[in-house]
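User: I've been trying to design a sequence by hand for this structure and keep getting stuck. Would you show me what you'd pick, starting by listing the structure so we're on the same page?

Assistant: Good idea, let's start from the same input. This is the structure you sent:
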């Protein structure tokens, strides 16, 4: 097979989400080493011809898309992240409409000036702003110490390791609760509970938990999004709750997305087994499945199980990525609002645009918005330091 045919095949496999890990690595290795942008553009045009070229846009708009298709020079910090995240750092794949796709690479020499920013751009979070609320109401900022002890409660110590992890250790005579809150605009925080279980909290999330587990069960409550790796203990089942939604854990790895502004609570199982209940219905999940618990007014029909969940998309937040799988504009902007701690305002009717792909989360807000907006009909305007106004370009 000639190189051009092979590249066309790899692009097709990638867009269809059927490529193997080896094929994906081969594709992005070729992109990262490409010496001739025009040659690469030609091969992409071949791939997109007819089926994938934006049939609902004019030639000028299509040319703008291809101006942004350039080879990415991989940064050393990206190489250390492992291949699949390197691939995501090299590219942004967006879907416009139902079946029209195009490819953008995350190294734009001169971004389109469609975003009016304040003098100080909104940078991606560089550190955690998380705090622990102790049982007596006192609060402890995680970044108050580089490493070492954060608090002492009974015989339980709360420490911070050199890599930023929060660790509980020791025993207590009674159940005493703490709450770890990770606000909007904060990096992901990792905590080890007293039983050895691990919890990762996304921005705009919190978890309430005992400082030590006493009795015959382990219970925690969450808001927002958390990923759990639960230490197995057959004598003490582990429960995660959000309102009427309860997850019974049988020693496992799973993700819970329970943001208030999302229509469903989503529980995604990566390993082991969990039972999900909404107080009326329940379902037992196998690895790769996702339970969706609707938060609306009809609880009797609000729990359903989805097979073959996209685990990479679900876990992207923990791995430093935005990942969109046919996401509409409001869904995309909800993720951005939590990460950058910004307010979103829509001017006019929200357009029906869908996004597909991955974007590294260390970009500044203006970089990311320029990447999203340069090939859609959407313009973004910054107002002050924390508001984004979304405008529909009707021209």
């Amino acid at each position: 097979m000639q190189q051009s045919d092979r590249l066309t095949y790899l692009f097709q496999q990638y867009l269809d989400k059927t490529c193997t890990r080896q094929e994906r690595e081969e594709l992005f290795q070729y992109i990262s080493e490409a010496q001739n942008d025009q040659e690469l553009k030609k091969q992409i045009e071949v791939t997109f011809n007819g089926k994938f070229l934006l049939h609902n846009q004019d030639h000028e708009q299509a040319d703008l898309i291809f101006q942004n298709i350039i080879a990415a020079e991989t940064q050393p910090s990206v190489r250390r992240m492992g291949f699949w995240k390197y691939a995501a750092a090299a590219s942004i794949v967006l879907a416009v409409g139902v079946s029209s796709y195009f490819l953008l690479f995350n190294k734009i020499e001169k971004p389109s000036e469609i975003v009016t920013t304040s003098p100080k751009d909104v940078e991606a979070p560089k550190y955690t702003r998380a705090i622990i609320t102790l049982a007596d109401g006192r609060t402890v900022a995680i970044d108050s110490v580089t490493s070492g002890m954060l608090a002492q409660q009974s015989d339980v110590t709360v420490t911070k390791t050199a890599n930023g992890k929060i660790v509980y250790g020791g025993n207590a005579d009674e159940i005493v609760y703490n709450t770890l809150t990770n606000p909007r605009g904060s990096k992901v925080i990792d905590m080890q509970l007293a039983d050895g279980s691990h919890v990762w909290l996304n921005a705009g999330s919190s978890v309430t938990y005992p400082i030590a587990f006493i009795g015959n069960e382990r219970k925690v409550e969450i808001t927002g999004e958390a990923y759990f790796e639960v230490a197995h203990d057959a004598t003490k089942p582990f429960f995660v709750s959000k309102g009427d939604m309860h997850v019974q854990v049988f020693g496992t790895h799973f993700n819970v997305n329970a943001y208030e502004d999302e229509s469903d609570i989503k529980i995604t199982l990566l390993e082991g087994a969990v039972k999900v209940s909404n107080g009326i219905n329940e379902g037992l999940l196998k690895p790769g499945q996702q339970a969706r618990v609707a938060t609306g007014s009809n609880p009797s029909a609000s729990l359903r199980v989805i097979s073959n969940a996209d685990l990479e998309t679900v876990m992207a937040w923990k791995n430093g990525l935005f990942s969109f799988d046919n996401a509409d504009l409001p869904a995309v902007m909800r993720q951005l609002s939590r990460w950058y701690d910004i307010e979103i305002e829509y001017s006019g009717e929200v357009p029906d645009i869908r996004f597909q792909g991955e974007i590294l989360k260390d970009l500044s807000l203006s970089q990311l918005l320029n990447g999203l907006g340069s090939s859609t009909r959407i313009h973004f305007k910054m107002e002050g330091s924390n508001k984004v106004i979304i405008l529909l370009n009707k021209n």
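That's my pick for every position. To get oriented when you compare it with your attempt: Residues 154 and 236 are 22 Å apart (CA to CA). Confidence is low (pLDDT under 50) at residues 48-119.
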